[in-house]
Amino acid sequence: MMDGEKPIFGVIMGGYTRPSWAFLLLVFTVIAVSCLQITTKTVFPIWVVSNSEKTGLSDTGGRPSCAGFFRHGPPRKTVMSITDFGGIGDGKTSNTVAFRLAIRHMQSFAEKGGAQLNVPRGRWVTGSFNLTSNFTLFLQEGAVIFGSQDPEEWPITEPLPSYGRGRERLGGRHISLIHGDGLTNVVITGQNGTIDGQGKMWWELWWNRTLKHTRGHLLEFMNSHNVLISNLTFLNSPFWTIHPVYCSNVVIKDMTILAPLNAPNTDGIDPDSCIHVCIEDCYIESGDDLVAVKSGWDQYGINMARPSSNIIIRRVLGTTPTCSGVGIGSEMSGGISNVTIEDLHVRDSAAGVRIKTDQGRGGYIANITIRNITMERVKVPIRFSRGANDHPDEGWDPKAVPKVKGIFITNVVSLNSIKAPILEGLENAPFEGICMKNVSILGLAPSVRWNCEHVLGFTDGVTPMPCPQLLNNSSSSWCSYS
Ligand SMILES: *[C@@H]1O[C@H](CO)[C@@H](O)[C@H](O)[C@H]1NC(C)=O
Ligand SMILES: *[C@@H]1O[C@H](CO)[C@@H](O)[C@H](O)[C@H]1NC(C)=O
Ligand SMILES: *[C@@H]1O[C@H](CO)[C@@H](O)[C@H](O)[C@H]1NC(C)=O
Ligand SMILES: *[C@@H]1O[C@H](CO)[C@@H](O)[C@H](O)[C@H]1NC(C)=O
Ligand SMILES: *[C@@H]1O[C@H](CO)[C@@H](O)[C@H](O)[C@H]1NC(C)=O
Ligand SMILES: *[C@@H]1O[C@H](CO)[C@@H](O)[C@H](O)[C@H]1NC(C)=O
Ligand SMILES: *[C@@H]1O[C@H](CO)[C@@H](O)[C@H](O)[C@H]1NC(C)=O
Ligand SMILES: *[C@@H]1O[C@H](CO)[C@@H](O)[C@H](O)[C@H]1NC(C)=O
Ligand SMILES: *[C@@H]1O[C@H](CO)[C@@H](O)[C@H](O)[C@H]1NC(C)=O
Ligand SMILES: *[C@@H]1O[C@H](CO)[C@@H](O)[C@H](O)[C@H]1NC(C)=O
Ligand SMILES: *[C@@H]1O[C@H](CO)[C@@H](O)[C@H](O)[C@H]1NC(C)=O
């Protein structure tokens, strides 16, 4: 056992809090005792286990649901609490060691029926920790996990290969508060418990230009399969809040995600080079896109060629005064296709749905279905833009132009809008196959016109009168889907 613990000692000694040897001894004793409990089957009350079962995806009252995207296993056989690992929920003590020990311990049950770690009511401060496979992190009612205010408790990790560097700074990036790499079958849920990244310190580092490495996410999954994130409140992420990257079969539902409306880059959910992702019934309020679908950045994303595909974003409600309800891009170099955005309700925001790309991105955005979107007081309800003018380094290829084709937009109502759609494609790569039906942009001054450049498509039942580029009245059969 001691051999296996060595890396943890390294982290402890290099980190911010240095627990006494007496405390470590206590922790190990507690573990030994809990192992004993497990082998003698005196585990935890049955109701805790059945609670985790109730995260089932069937209870949607006949509405479409994410059910097909996540495969539920049987309840985890082993259930323990963070307090079994010396955790102290007093809002002051660092629980980094406790969480890391707990996960290390629970890893050993991955092939023995899986494990669930309960976080009870309390205020649990922690640095970053990794999750494991066949595992449930369960935040009970009143449980709040707080991200440490010590940047060293968010160690630097490798940049993503599809970005070639940290998104904000060259080199490595701070690891997310809760992190998973190469995992299968992971659930993070609970009775609306909270994970609070306490991002203010990080936003200030960004604002005052003293940030050394790219900020960490609140939760990141990499290279993982069959992941469910539900029934929790996530607050104040330093950077993008939930970032699944190189993942498949990810469900994010019944989440509340909040950050101050001026907090920089606090996107809600960013599926990035992922396939089969379903997001539904979320309320999101933040300083950046509520949801942004991505797939890598310029030459790094092009080389990695990991698309985002088969993504559903449904029944999301929220506000973002400077960004969009749903964004596609601007990092899209691995390609993005088969995205459905439906039953979206965006209020008091800069844009409703926005497609963003640029010269040098390469890749494609294809077959995007956007339907039943309600907007209130959204400045630019529908926006396509180029000119992100944001490249990882000088190695980007100006000839790598993105292909945008097949954007189907139906049943949109925008109330109290300020501008008509702004649709700007690339001169050397017009956006084509844009189909809009039954789109009403209301509340505009009579003089307001659509603004279109380098776009081609068809419209029907659209007010106010769209730009001529979208009045392609011949051969509109490609736009005749429901
Ligand atoms: C997870 O559990 C399943 C079913 O028991 C098992 O087949 C698989 O090997 C486990 N995964 C890991 C990584 O241990
Ligand atoms: C968490 O996983 C990352 C790799 O994904 C690794 O670099 C890091 O050391 C791990 N942290 C801990 C505390 O095990
Ligand atoms: C989800 O949160 C609600 C409200 O706190 C709670 O009643 C319900 O039991 C939670 N569901 C699960 C599966 O924990
Ligand atoms: C969960 O908690 C958040 C924050 O307190 C609250 O806004 C939200 O309504 C709660 N969700 C449920 C389902 O109770
Ligand atoms: C920048 O913000 C950080 C975090 O709040 C703070 O510790 C630091 O003193 C600030 N630096 C400057 C130059 O304002
Ligand atoms: C898009 O969806 C269609 C129909 O479900 C499927 O045939 C196609 O393979 C998907 N494309 C990608 C890139 O996943
Ligand atoms: C477009 O995507 C939808 C789902 O997002 C899928 O049903 C359809 O088959 C796709 N079409 C093509 C041509 O891939
Ligand atoms: C449209 O979306 C809203 C949520 O914004 C939902 O309440 C409504 O049922 C949806 N309508 C249809 C026809 O699906
Ligand atoms: C047009 O869209 C609105 C808003 O989604 C919807 O209520 C209405 O039924 C749609 N009309 C048609 C003819 O589909
Ligand atoms: C009409 O739209 C189709 C599909 O986007 C395109 O191939 C064709 O060139 C367009 N025709 C005109 C006259 O714009
Ligand atoms: C399409 O129809 C509109 C209005 O009916 C007309 O103004 C426009 O010139 C037509 N466009 C083409 C390419 O025929």
How is the secondary structure organized here?
Layout: H1 2-14, H2 21-39, H3 46-53, E1 78-81, E2 90-94, H4 96-107, E3 115-119, E4 122-126, E5 129-130, E6 135-139, E7 143-147, E8 156-157, E9 173-174, E10 178-181, E11 184-190, E12 194-196, H5 200-207, E13 219-222, E14 225-235, E15 242-245, E16 248-258, E17 275-285, E18 291-293, H6 298-304, E19 308-319, E20 324-328, E21 336-347, E22 351-356, E23 364-376, E24 380-385, E25 403-415, E26 422-424, E27 431-441, E28 451-453, E29 455-463
Parallel strand pairs: 1-3, 2-4, 3-6, 4-7, 5-10, 6-11, 7-12, 10-13, 11-14, 12-14, 13-15, 14-16, 16-17, 17-19, 18-20, 19-21, 20-22, 21-23, 22-24, 23-25, 24-26, 25-27, 26-28, 27-29
Antiparallel strand pairs: 8-9
The structure holds 2-acetamido-2-deoxy-beta-D-glucopyranose (11 copies).
Task: Give the overall silhouette.
Answer: globular
Bound molecule kinds, no repeats: 2-acetamido-2-deoxy-beta-D-glucopyranose
> Radius of gyration over alpha carbons?
23 Å
Structural class determined from secondary elements: mainly beta
State the low-pLDDT regions, or none. 1-59
Mean pLDDT: 89
Beta-strand fraction estimate: 35-45%
Helix content: 10-25%
Distance between the termini: 60 Å
Largest sheet, in brief, is: 17 strands, parallel
DSSP, total strands: 29
Number of helices: 6
Q: What's this entry about, in short?
A:
This is Pectate lyase superfamily protein domain-containing protein. With 482 residues, the chain is mainly beta.
Write a structural description:
The protein starts with a helix and ends in a 19-residue tail after the last strand. The protein is built from six helices and 29 strands. The longest helix is centred in the N-terminal third of the chain and has 19 residues, at 21-39. It has a 17-stranded parallel β-sheet that branches. The protein has a six-stranded parallel β-sheet with strand order 18-20-22-24-26-28, with no helix packed on it. It has a four-stranded parallel β-sheet with strand order 5-10-13-15. 54% of the residues are buried. It has 482 residues and is mainly β. It has helices at 2-14, 21-39, 46-53, 96-107, 200-207, 298-304, and strands at 78-81, 90-94, 115-119, 122-126, 129-130, 135-139, 143-147, 156-157, 173-174, 178-181, 184-190, 194-196, 219-222, 225-235, 242-245, 248-258, 275-285, 291-293, 308-319, 324-328, 336-347, 351-356, 364-376, 380-385, 403-415, 422-424, 431-441, 451-453, 455-463. It has a domain at 24-69 and 289-482. 14% of the residues lie in helices and 39% in strands. It binds 2-acetamido-2-deoxy-beta-D-glucopyranose (11 copies). One 2-acetamido-2-deoxy-beta-D-glucopyranose is lined by residues 471-473.
